[in-house]
Design brief:
five-stranded mixed β-sheet, 10 helices, alpha+beta, Acyl-CoA-binding_protein
Length: 671
């Protein structure tokens, strides 16, 4: 569509200088970033450099920067285009974008730039490349800042904000009295206010209701009551945990949950924030059995309930639907293979047609499988997942932002999950958004997660959880554009939606090539409006190779970026494994050291015992020798006594026979 051109204003080159000042090249307070798209900014930058500096003679940027390389390529591709021609094309493109630019620029037209050839200002800077310092000449000129919308922004500088970074969990400044720490509670958002109801603390079920203002980050407790005209409503105020809290028609619906007063059928409670009253909704049909830690998904005006654990601690995988307009229950036996019975899983809906079930547990088994239910055909399927396949977990929480499903927390019997992951529900590609360290509330089970809007951007808000102790902290994450863009990996379509997914994929590819396409059209339109045929031919001849080069470099940069991301992910995984292995080795070394110290102590004790035994042995040997000596002496004495006895006995008999009188002593003895 042709645009009107401004016919008034100064002649060249003053007209070009006024246009460049208005576009943001001359220190204008209005930045070019907020006025033009990326492709127009890139073209204006190249023409401005060609007009003010001349042909590109600076070396190609040696550092890896897609923006700087694109700017250099754009300028270098103009070759030896005449400065006057570059000025005229610059103004021509600006007039097509904003026909009334000159009337708007009257208040801040900058002084013209001096002579083209004399305007080369170089600065010699020390650049570190491959570990060596090298002097590199850089051209200093007035440049526009081209924002690559596919890249992350690190910091938002617009005013004081507690949420200043993308893809990173932060704790906002909380005011007011925080609710009691808990897990397996319910949370939902109504009009920028997050309501938290019930939960479990130290095995005790809760029924308090708190609200967090997501603008001032202030907690307050709601003094809720039950309807006086309904005697049965007193049950709606019973403490519970493992329930689901759903916002519907500016009211809260608390569906099922574990209570001390166990009932056979599922109960749906309703809270009206206007009157601060609870009530039990009357339903029709056959309600499901009572349960907790199930999933409840709002699809249009219906609630889809799947799985959970009943009052007998049995795991379920049945499927029920509650029509909120007629309040009628229906149970469905869907075709295909449903997910195995489980609890602590998460669920989401895509395109108001597909119900996705992820994770959960059954007894000691934890899952990381993904199941999809086509609500129109009521058929289960188990598609192939791609990307960074998440680990098995239960007790996690999830919310959807567009076609992206963010999942936080959860864990198994050993550890909590530290990664915040996102699934693109059109391509079924997983990716990691953020990672936390240590035993923090974000790596817990039974936490809640809601999505809200803050300063015009979507934010994720988590609360509570249990990881060995109960938490009541609030954390906020602002997803970046990278987190919510469709993945460019191979597609894995949902059942029955092949055409829809292909349309989304084509739309993604079209969006990626938007810059090249628009740039081609812009160049062709600009060249077509030229009255000088030789100039037009020259312009086209110079820009066609430029576009081809830009596209090839963009593809190469994207390929390198994907490789770098994959390499970074692998390195992170290897580093994590190495750290875990190092921790295990450290523990093993500490254990070996303790064992060695114990063995050394035991060895020393044994050496002392051996020395004592040797001393005792020596004493025993000495005693043995003394004993042997005494025994020999005794034997000699006994032998002598025996010999003497024999002699005495022998002499008495013979004396008697010979008539010899006995010695005097014997005689006395006989007397």
């Amino acid at each position: 569509m042709a645009m009107a051109r401004a016919s008034s204003g100064p002649a060249y080159p003053e007209r070009f200088y006024a246009a460049s000042s208005y576009a943001g090249f001359g220190g204008s307070p209005k930045g070019v970033n907020s006025r033009f798209s990326n492709d127009v900014s890139l073209l204006l930058y190249a023409l401005h450099q060609q007009a003010t500096v001349g042909p590109c003679k600076v070396p190609k940027p040696r550092g890896w920067s897609p923006v700087e390389q694109s700017k250099w390529t754009s300028w270098h591709g103009l070759g030896n285009m005449d400065s006057a021609e570059a000025m005229r094309l610059f103004v021509k493109i600006l007039e097509e974008e904003e026909p009334s630019w000159y009337s708007k620029a009257s208040d801040h037209i900058a002084d013209p730039v001096v002579d083209v050839e004399a305007n080369h200002t170089y600065k010699r800077e020390s650049v570190i490349e491959n570990g060596e310092h090298a002097a590199q000449e850089k051209l200093i000129s007035s440049e526009i800042e081209i924002i690559d919308k596919t890249q992350d922004k690190d910091v938002i500088s617009e005013g004081p904000s507690p949420i200043a970074v993308y893809d990173q969990w932060v704790a906002p400044p909380i005011q007011g009295a925080c609710p009691r720490a808990r897990y397996e509670h319910g949370a939902a958002v109504i009009r920028d206010k997050m309501f938290v109801y019930g939960g479990n603390h130290n095995g005790r079920y809760l029924n308090d209701l708190h609200v967090l203002d997501l603008r001032s980050w202030t907690w307050s407790k709601v003094d809720a009551k039950f309807k006086e005209d309904a005697a049965e409503s007193i049950g709606s105020f019973a403490p519970c945990s493992g329930h689901s809290l759903i916002a519907w028609n500016n009211k809260l619906l608390s569906v099922a949950g574990h209570t001390k007063r166990s009932s056979e059928s599922m109960t749906v409670r309703e809270f009206d924030p206007q009157t601060c009253t609870w009530s039990i909704l009357k339903t029709y049909g056959k309600p499901p059995v009572s349960r907790g830690c199930h999933s409840v998904t709002l699809v249009g005006n219906t609630l889809v309930i799947f799985g959970g654990q009943d009052t007998k601690r049995s795991f379920l995988n049945d499927l029920h639907i509650l029509d909120l307009e007629t309040m009628t229950w229906d149970e469905f036996d869907a075709a295909g293979n449903p997910p195995s019975p489980r609890t602590g899983h998460s669920a989401a809906v895509h395109a108001e047609r597909y119900l996705l079930i992820f994770g959960g547990r059954s007894h000691a088994t934890f899952f990381n499988d993904l199941h999809v239910l086509d609500i129109q055909t009521m058929e289960w399927s188990k598609p192939t997942q791609q990307g960074d396949i998440p680990s098995s977990r239960a007790g996690h929480a999830g919310v959807t932002v567009g076609e992206n499903w963010f999942i936080v927390g959860g864990g198994d019997n050993n550890n909590g999950v530290s990664e915040t992951i996102v699934l693109n529900m059109s391509t079924l590609v997983w990716s990691v958004v953020a990672t936390v360290q240590g035993r923090v509330p974000l790596a817990t089970e039974g936490l809640s997660l809601v999505v809200s809007s803050y300063n015009g951007e979507d934010v994720l808000v988590s609360f509570g959880g249990y990881n060995g102790h109960y938490n009541n902290e609030v954390n906020v994450l602002k997803p970046s554009q990278r987190s919510i863009l469709p993945s460019k990996m191979d597609e894995s379509t949902l059942p029955g939606s092949t055409s829809a997914v292909h349309n989304i994929a084509h739309a993604t590819r079209d969006a990626e090539s938007k810059t090249e396409t628009v740039l081609v059209e812009r160049i062709r339109e600009t060249a077509a409006g030229n009255t000088l045929d030789p100039v037009k031919t020259k312009f086209q001849e110079r820009f066609e190779p430029l576009l081809t080069t830009l596209k090839a470099e963009k593809e190469g940069i994207e390929y390198l970026l994907n490789e770098e991301k994959a390499l970074t992910l692998r390195l992170k995984q290897e580093l994590s494994e190495a750290e875990a292995h190092n921790v295990d080795l450290h523990k093993e070394v500490q254990s070996l050291r303790s064992q060695l110290a114990a063995e050394q102590s035991r060895s020393f004790k044994l050496e002392v015992d051996v020395a004592e035994m040797r001393q005792k042995q020596q004493m025993m040997e000495a005693l043995q020798k003394e004993l042997e000596l005494l025994q020999r002496q005794k034997a000699v004495s006994e032998q002598a006594i025996l010999s003497a006895s024999q002699r005495q006995s022998s002499g008495g008999v013979w004396s008697w026979l010979a008539g010899t009188p006995p010695p005097p002593g014997m005689k006395e003895n006989n007397a």
